[in-house]
Input
Amino acid sequence: QVQLVESGGGSVQAGGSLRLSCAASGRSFSTYAMGWFRQAAGKQRELVAGITRGGNTNYADSVKGRFTISRDNGENTVFLQMNSLKPEDTAVYYCAAGGPGRSFDSWGQGTQVTVSS
Output
């Protein structure tokens, strides 16, 4: 199991940018698929972006072209660059990890992102 700690959240105006970081501790970080999820008030948790151990990525339709997920295996860190932020991006963002052949089963504590009009 890997322990995850998110940072970089905050409050920005619409059109602004934030970069979230997720620092991981534990063995074999490079073998984990990593993802960013978010949960807005009154809504279910959704996958925002994912990245495999090989670097392949996928994104929710709502963030394509605006968000970029990346990883630095040497530093055991995954990032989410968020550009052109919209008020509907307001949510608690969670970092998650899943080992080979498993779904996401390790979670960070979450970091609040608030986008104002």
